[in-house]
Amino acid sequence: MQNLKVQIVEQLNLKDIKPEDIGDDQPLFVEGLGLDSIDALELIVLLQQHYGLKLAKAEDGPEVFRSVLSMAKYITANKAK
Amino acid sequence: MTDPVFLTGLGIISAIGRDVNETIDSFVNHRSGIGPCRNLNTIHKDVFPLGEVKMSNQELASLHGLDARLSRTILLSYHAAIAAKKTIPTFKNTNWRKGFISGSSVGGMDRTEFFFEDFCSDHMTGDLRDVMNHDCGKPTDFVAEKLGFKDFITTLSTACSSSANSIMLGARLIKAGKLDLVIAGGVDALTKFTLNGFNSLMIVDKEQCRPLDESRVGLNLGEGAAYVVLMSEKVMKELNADPYCMLSGYGNSNDSFHQTALSNEGNGPFLAMEAALDMSGLLPTQIDYINMHGTGTQNNDMAEGKAVERIFHPHYPRLSSTKSFTGHTLGASGGVEAVLSALAIKEGYVFPNYQYKNPMNNLNIVPETKFQKGQNIINVLSNSFGFGGNCTALVFSKVN
Amino acid sequence: MTGEKYVIKSFAGIKNGKILLNGIMLHESGQLNFDEMMDEVYRKLNLAYPKFHKMDQLSKLGFMTSEFLLRDQKLTDEYEADKIGIVLSNKSASLDTDLKYQSMLDKGVASPAVFVYTLPNILIGELCIRNKIKGESIFFISDRYNINQQVDYMLLLLNTGVIGACIAGWVEFIQGKYESFLYLVTKGDDQSGEEFSPVSVKKMFNQI
Fold first, then answer.
1. pTM of the model as a whole
2. In this structure, which CATH number among 1.10.1200.10, 1.20.190.20, 2.60.40.10, 1.20.120.450 belongs to the domain A2-79?
3. How many angstroms separate the Cα of C97 from the Cα of each of B237, B356, C13, C90, C92?
4. In which element (H, E) is residue C190 found?
5. SS3 category, C154
6. Which pLDDT tens digit goes with each residue over B113-140?
7. Is B293 a catalytic residue?
8. Of B82, B281, B354, B361, which residue is least crowded by CB atoms under 10 Å?
9. Model ipTM value
10. Do the Cβ atoms of B159 and C119 come within 8 Å?
């Protein structure tokens, strides 16, 4: 997950934030990180670029990207396929 | 209302026709121009329907005696602009100052895409002629030169409100006594750049779009060009030109919320429409038809619907999104819809949505579903909202 | 309205590693490149505006210039949001970001965050969001900075009461080369600022 945090910070240009400052289960989109809809789309690109995963439905986004932990779980679950 | 500016001519090319007759014919026969991709060479060829102009670059070039290697943007722009120019009665007055104002988001980028592929694989290949006309302003300069409209030439780039803003600027310059005749509007050609970009924002529909419908999922991209001829009353009388209508009001404001999404309350659209109505001196109840920006995205249609509700509730005029026929022509959309608005007034047309089933939740916005003619259309409101929060509204009115 | 007087309240610019406000150099970045310079100034100003890092270079350039321009002005206190306008122009539109986006596309990546900035007027959007401005805005593209045309257009808007104040200028960024010039025009008399005219705008532009 540390890797994932580094990737997130890079992909989203979160210069004010250090990867280690992001809590594993910290909500990504409500408060704290100040992410918006474009960031959500960038996370979809991140999944594709780094993990070869394509989010099947945009509606799944909010759940998958809720926190770093939920993202990691999604990656583990789907990468095995 | 301050001195009106008269719209005496127009030219248009889009997915639904290469001129006014073909365009109207598409509405009469309820034929959308959106369909499988034929012209654009993209990996998304079989995925996204597009509103392509049904003419190849070669055909456009041959028609006008131009070089087929020119940017498609130039070819489309020239086609529509020259059609508009032809409507101006011949005149001998060489003192009249003539302006050409064109809006575009893509410029000559379509040719650059050809260049880039070759260039990337081998830096010694790629024809530099392909990039000469890349700049946003190049198509404008080229066409202005051919039109002989050289006293004032400018290019506007405010995304999807570009050509509506061109028309606003043209009107202002005439009212200020700085120009006598203006051809204003805009153009955009389809490119892989824009298709991939809009797709990355996940606002493109894999099927025919459904603007203003609750089940909508996104827009269909289109291409085209459209220009109107504007003149002052004095020039119009001297030329004995027969106006389609007058531009009686306009407004522009910034939604100031997000780079690519509108605020929930539709503040930018609301302010723009309010300003345009204010200038025209009309009450909302006097608007007979609204040509909505209506792209078919969840965000736009909801925000625009909210803004329309804020102004018009409970007396909603007839309204529709013609993007369901033409696709979203980006920089050209304001011009395309201005042309349709002028035709609505002159011929009494009311344009429909191509398809519509489910009313948007919590909004009283119900578009027309059938094309009508011979209606008494006196005042039309046309909306164009661009990324960057740039919102423009134009009001056109019948001349007494 | 016609007869009303307009003044230039402030002007700012960024060029050659220097940031100037009203003719006075407030920052110099020496040998740093543009991105490094922007980072340095961001930290120095303690901006706490994370969205800044997501902007493309054209928007960063214009945004940073406006932060200095509006620093000592109470613009939204004195004018209604929808009476403040923005009139900008440049030569290259968003070409620099367009090229960046295109090269990413060629590697098979369509980045939405980069695509968003492939339009010059997104810069205007950023200024509006930051400063809560809702008035008219427009972005002209031309080979060279046409001050006469810009001033003419602004007077049109000011004299007809469409706006009461305006941020205007020239913001150009292409392949590492940058030049920005912004000025703020409001109603006023001789006491409150330099008279708004092409001559004074040109004079200020030459100081950048």
1. 0.91
2. 1.10.1200.10
3. 47, 38, 21, 14, 10
4. none
5. helix
6. 666 666 666 666 656 655 555 566 778 9
7. yes
8. B361
9. 0.86
10. yes
